[in-house]
Task: inverse folding
C-alpha cells in the first residue's frame, strides 16, 4: 500500500485532508458568488455547525434535545457582547462564544445522562422557551427585546481586497469546517465507539468499564459548543446583531427537523439538513406565490412542510436523506459484477 | 378439541417451532415437555396468536384460528396462562378476575364459582395482586382464565417457583378442570414427572421438533425415554 | 398580605388549568408510554374551533361542548393514524412524531387564523369578589375554572376506577400483552385513552384562553407547565397530576408576583430540573412493577 493510502487510514490525517480540501474549494467558490449567495452559504454554514452537533448527540448517543436553539443564543450573545462591549476581534469572540455554550452544556449534559428520552426532551423544551426570557430580565446587559447590534466583521488587512460578504461567508465556512473536523474525529474514534456502545446498551457498556456518565456529558458539551459556534456565526456574520426574536422555539424545531430529515447521526446528513433549512423557505415562498397565498400562508408554509415531512419520514423512512443515499449506494453496489475487492466495513 | 398441524414459527432466521403437530381432545391433558429453549413457550405463544405462525394450521373445534388476532382467538374460547402467571399487580384480585370475563359479558362465570375453587382468593379479593404469594398468583391466573369459560386452556409452566406441595395441588386441579369442565388442556412443563402424573398423553420437544409422542403412562414407564429426555 | 392572598388564589386558578393539561399528559403516558408534545397544539386547535363557534352562535356553552367533542375526535384520530405505528418503536420516534405534529398544527392554525393573538370570552364575570372593603383578584370565572377541572378529574377517576371500560384501559396500560390474552382490544383502549386525554386538554385550553389570549403559539407555555406539573406529580399518577398542577400553579404565581413575569418560564424549568434530579418518579411515584 502506498504511503498516502496508509496515511489516509489514520482518521486525523483523513479528516485534515478533507477539511483542507473543502476549505480551499469553499474559499474559491465564495469568491465568485454574489452577495446573496454568500449570505446563503454563511447561513448554511451556521446551520451545519448546530445540526452536526445535534445529530451526533441524537444519533450517536441517542439523546434528543429541543433546546439547541437556545444554546445558539448563548453563543451568539457571548460573541456579540465581547465584540461590542469589550472590543474583541471576531475569531476570539466566536471561540469564546463556543466555550461559554460548552460551559452551559455541562449541567445540561449531566442532566442528559440521568434523564430518559421524553424527560430530556421536555427539559430542553423548557430551557428553549425559558432562556430568551433572560434578555428581558436583564435589559441593561442584553439589550432587551431589541437586542444588540454590531458592525459587520471586516476582513483583516492582508485580505482587504475581499468584499464583506465574501469574508463573512468564508469565516462561516471556516467555523463549519472546524466543527466538521472535531466531530468527524469524535465519531470515528474510540470515543465515538464508546458513545454508540452506551447508546445501545448502557448496562453492558458500563460493565465493560465505560464511564457512561462522562461519555454522554462529553457528547452533550461538544454538541453545545458546536451550536454556540453556529449561533455566534449567525449573529456576527449574518445578522450583525442579536436579539431574543432571532432564537424562537421554532428554531429548535427547525434544527430537529434538519437533523431527522438529513439523517439522524450522520455528518453528511447534517449537510443535507443545512441545505434544506436554507433553501426551503425560498421554495415555499415561491410555492405560496404560485398559488397567490396570503402572507399568513407564506409565513407558515415552511413550518407546515417541516412538520408534514417530519411526520411522514418518521412513519415511513426514519433514516432520512442520508439513509436513503446509503440504501441506494448499497443497492448499486449489489448490482456490480462480482470480483471487486470488498470495501472495508463502513 | 385443539389441533395443531405442521406448525412452524420463525424469529427471523431462527426456527423456534419446527413442524409440530399435536391434538388435545376435550377433557384431556396433553403435557408438552422438553428442556429450556426447546420451543415450548414459543409453541403456546403461536397458538394464542401473540406470535405469528410462519406455516401450518391451528384448529379449535374445527375452526381455523391460525391467522386470527389474539383478541379474536381468545373470543373463540382459548385461554392462555402465560409464563410467569401474568397477574397484573396494580389491579386487585377481584379486578384481575373480572377482567378475565369482560369480553364474555353475561355468559362469564360468576366470581363466586372461582372463589369456590380458590377460597384463598376470596379472602384477598380487595387486595392488590402484588401482595399475593407465588402459589396464590398461580391460582389467580388460572381462575382468571376460567372466568371466560374457555374450551381450551394453555398453561405455561404453572409449577415454576412453587413448593412441591403446591405443585401437586395445582396439577391435581388441572386434572379436575379437564375432567369436570371438559377442557382441552395443553400443559407446558419442565417438571416432567408432575406433568405426566396428571396428563393423558405427553409430547417431548427438542429444538422445536416433536421427538416423542406417547401415552403419559408409557412415557413414565419407559426408563430409556425418561432418562434421555425427561431427566428422571 | 392582600398580595399574598391574591397570588395564592390566582395560583389555585392557574394550577387547576395546569392540572387539566397534566392529566391529559399523564393519561397518554400511562397508556402508551409517550409524552404528547403536541398536546398544547391540539388544545390550541380546539380552542380556535370553540372561538369560531362562539362567534357564530353567541353561546359559550356551545363553544365549550364543541371544543370537547372535537378534542375527543382529534385525540382518537391522532392515536389511530399517527401514533399507533410508533407505539412500539424507540421513544425517540414518538418524540419526533409529536413534535412534527405540533409544528403542523401551529402552522395550520397560523395559515387559517393568522399569527396575531386574539381575545377569547370568559364564561363568567371577570370582576373580583368583594370581601369587606377589598376586591380580591379571584373572580367568579376562576371559581368556574377550578370547579370544572375538579369535576372533570372526578369523572375521569370514576371512569377508570368504577367502569369495565376503565378496568380494560388500566389493564391495557399496565400489561398490554396479558390484557390481549384476556380478550381486551388493547389498541382500542389506547385510542380511547388518547381521546379522553384530548378532552381534558381541550377543556384546559378553553378555560385559560381568556387570560392567555388565543394565537398559534399562545399555549406553548401551557404545555410546558402541564409537563412540569405532570412530572412533579409523577407521570404515572393521575392524582399526582392534579396535585402537581396545584403546586406548580402556586409556585409560579408567587414567582410572577414577587419576581416578575419574565422569570416564570425559568422558574418552571428550575422546578422541573430539581424534581428530575432528586425524585425523577415525581412526588407520587408508583413503583414500576411492570409485567408482561
Result:
Amino acid at each position: 500500500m502506498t504511503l498516502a493510502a496508509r496515511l489516509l487510514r489514520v482518521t486525523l490525517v483523513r479528516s485534515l485532508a478533507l477539511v483542507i480540501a473543502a476549505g480551499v474549494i469553499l474559499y474559491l467558490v465564495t469568491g465568485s458568488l454574489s452577495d446573496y449567495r454568500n449570505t446563503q452559504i454563511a447561513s448554511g454554514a451556521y446551520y451545519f455547525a448546530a445540526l452536526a452537533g445535534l445529530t451526533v448527540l441524537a444519533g450517536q448517543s441517542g439523546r434528543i434535545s429541543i433546546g439547541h436553539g437556545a444554546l445558539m443564543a448563548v453563543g451568539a450573545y457571548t460573541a456579540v457582547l465581547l465584540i461590542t462591549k469589550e472590543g474583541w476581534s471576531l475569531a476570539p469572540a466566536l471561540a469564546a462564544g463556543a466555550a461559554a455554550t460548552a460551559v452551559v452544556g455541562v449541567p445540561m449534559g449531566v442532566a442528559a445522562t440521568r434523564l430518559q428520552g421524553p424527560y430530556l426532551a421536555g427539559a430542553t423544551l423548557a430551557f428553549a422557551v425559558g432562556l430568551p426570557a433572560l434578555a428581558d430580565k436583564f435589559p441593561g446587559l442584553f439589550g432587551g427585546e431589541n437586542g444588540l447590534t454590531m458592525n459587520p466583521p471586516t476582513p483583516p488587512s492582508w485580505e482587504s481586497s475581499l468584499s464583506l460578504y465574501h469574508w463573512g461567508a468564508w469565516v462561516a465556512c471556516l467555523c463549519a469546517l472546524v466543527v466538521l473536523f472535531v466531530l468527524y474525529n469524535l465519531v470515528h474514534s474510540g470515543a465515538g465507539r464508546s458513545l454508540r456502545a452506551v447508546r445501545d446498551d448502557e448496562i453492558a457498556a458500563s460493565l465493560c468499564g465505560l464511564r457512561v456518565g462522562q461519555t454522554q456529558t462529553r457528547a452533550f458539551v461538544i454538541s453545545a459548543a458546536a451550536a454556540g459556534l453556529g449561533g455566534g456565526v449567525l449573529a456576527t456574520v449574518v445578522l450583525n446583531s442579536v436579539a431574543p426574536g432571532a432564537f424562537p422555539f421554532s428554531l429548535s424545531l427547525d434544527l430537529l427537523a434538519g437533523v431527522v430529515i438529513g439523517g439522524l447521526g450522520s455528518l453528511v446528513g447534517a449537510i443535507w439538513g443545512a441545505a434544506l433549512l436554507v433553501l426551503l423557505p425560498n421554495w415555499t415562498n415561491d410555492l405560496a406565490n404560485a398559488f397567490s397565498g396570503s402572507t399568513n400562508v407564506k409565513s407558515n408554509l415552511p413550518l407546515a412542510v417541516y412538520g408534514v415531512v417530519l411526520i411522514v419520514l418518521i412513519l415511513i423512512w426514519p433514516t432520512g436523506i442520508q439513509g436513503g443515499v446509503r440504501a441506494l449506494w448499497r443497492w448499486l453496489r449489489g448490482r456490480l459484477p462480482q470480483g471487486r475487492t470488498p470495501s472495508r466495513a463502513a | 378439541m385443539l389441533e395443531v398441524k405442521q406448525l412452524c414459527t420463525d424469529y427471523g432466521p431462527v426456527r423456534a417451532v419446527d413442524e409440530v403437530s399435536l391434538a388435545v381432545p376435550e377433557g384431556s391433558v396433553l403435557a408438552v415437555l422438553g428442556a429450556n429453549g426447546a420451543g415450548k413457550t414459543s409453541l403456546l405463544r403461536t397458538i394464542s396468536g401473540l406470535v405469528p405462525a410462519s406455516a401450518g394450521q391451528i384448529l379449535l373445534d374445527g375452526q381455523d384460528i391460525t391467522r386470527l388476532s389474539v383478541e379474536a382467538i381468545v373470543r373463540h374460547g382459548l385461554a392462555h396462562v402465560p409464563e410467569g402467571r401474568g397477574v397484573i399487580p396494580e389491579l386487585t384480585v377481584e379486578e384481575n378476575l373480572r377482567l378475565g370475563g369482560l369480553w364474555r359479558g353475561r355468559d362469564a362465570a360468576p366470581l363466586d364459582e372461582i372463589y369456590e375453587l380458590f377460597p384463598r382468593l376470596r379472602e384477598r379479593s380487595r387486595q392488590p395482586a402484588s401482595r399475593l404469594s407465588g402459589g396464590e398468583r398461580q391460582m389467580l391466573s388460572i381462575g382468571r382464565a376460567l372466568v371466560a369459560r374457555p374450551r381450551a386452556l394453555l398453561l405455561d409452566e404453572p409449577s415454576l417457583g412453587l413448593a412441591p406441595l403446591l405443585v401437586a395441588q395445582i396439577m391435581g386441579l388441572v386434572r379436575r378442570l379437564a375432567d369436570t369442565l371438559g377442557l382441552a388442556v395443553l400443559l407446558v412443563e419442565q417438571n416432567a414427572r408432575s406433568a405426566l402424573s396428571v396428563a393423558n398423553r405427553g409430547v417431548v420437544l427438542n429444538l422445536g421438533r416433536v421427538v416423542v409422542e406417547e401415552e403419559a403412562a408409557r412415557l413414565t414407564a419407559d426408563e430409556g425415554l425418561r432418562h434421555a429426555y425427561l431427566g428422571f | 398580605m392582600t398580595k399574598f392572598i391574591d397570588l395564592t388564589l390566582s395560583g389555585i386558578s392557574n394550577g387547576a388549568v395546569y392540572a387539566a393539561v397534566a392529566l391529559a399528559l399523564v393519561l397518554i403516558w400511562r397508556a402508551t408510554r409517550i409524552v404528547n408534545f403536541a398536546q398544547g397544539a391540539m388544545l390550541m386547535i380546539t380552542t380556535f374551533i370553540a372561538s369560531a363557534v362562539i362567534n357564530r352562535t353567541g353561546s359559550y356553552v356551545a363553544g365549550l361542548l364543541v371544543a370537547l367533542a372535537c378534542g375527543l375526535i382529534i385525540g382518537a384520530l391522532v392515536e389511530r393514524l399517527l401514533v399507533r405505528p410508533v407505539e412500539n418503536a424507540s421513544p425517540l420516534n414518538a418524540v419526533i412524531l409529536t413534535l412534527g405534529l405540533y409544528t403542523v398544527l401551529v402552522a395550520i392554525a397560523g395559515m387559517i387564523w393568522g399569527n396575531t393573538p386574539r381575545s377569547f370570552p370568559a364564561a363568567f364575570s371577570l370582576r373580583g369578589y368583594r370581601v369587606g372593603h377589598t376586591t380580591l383578584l379571584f373572580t367568579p370565572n376562576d371559581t368556574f375554572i377550578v370547579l370544572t377541572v375538579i369535576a372533570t378529574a372526578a369523572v375521569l377517576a370514576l371512569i377508570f376506577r368504577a367502569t369495565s371500560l376503565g378496568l380494560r384501559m388500566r389493564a391495557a396500560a399496565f400489561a398490554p400483552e396479558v390484557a390481549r390474552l384476556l380478550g381486551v382490544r388493547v389498541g382500542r383502549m389506547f385510542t380511547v385513552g388518547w381521546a379522553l386525554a384530548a378532552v381534558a386538554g381541550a377543556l384546559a385550553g378553553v378555560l385559560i384562553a381568556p387570560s392567555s389570549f388565543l394565537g398559534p403559539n399562545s399555549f406553548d407555555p401551557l404545555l410546558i407547565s402541564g409537563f412540569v406539573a405532570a412530572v412533579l406529580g409523577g407521570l404515572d399518577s393521575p392524582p399526582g397530576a392534579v396535585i402537581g398542577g396545584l403546586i406548580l400553579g402556586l409556585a409560579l404565581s408567587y414567582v410572577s408576583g414577587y419576581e416578575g413575569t419574565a422569570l416564570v418560564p425559568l422558574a418552571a424549568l428550575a422546578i422541573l430540573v430539581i424534581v428530575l434530579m432528586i425524585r425523577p418518579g415525581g412526588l407520587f411515584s408508583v413503583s414500576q412493577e411492570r409485567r408482561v
Observations:
- The beta strands of chain B are 2-11, 14-24, 29-33, 55-60, 63-64, 78-81, 152-156, 184-188, 201-206, 209-215.
- The longest helix of chain B spans residues 164-181.
- The interface with chain C takes residues 48, 50, 70-71, 74-75, 79-80, 82-84, 86-91, 95, 98-100, 102-104, 130, 144, 148 of chain B (CB under 8 Å).
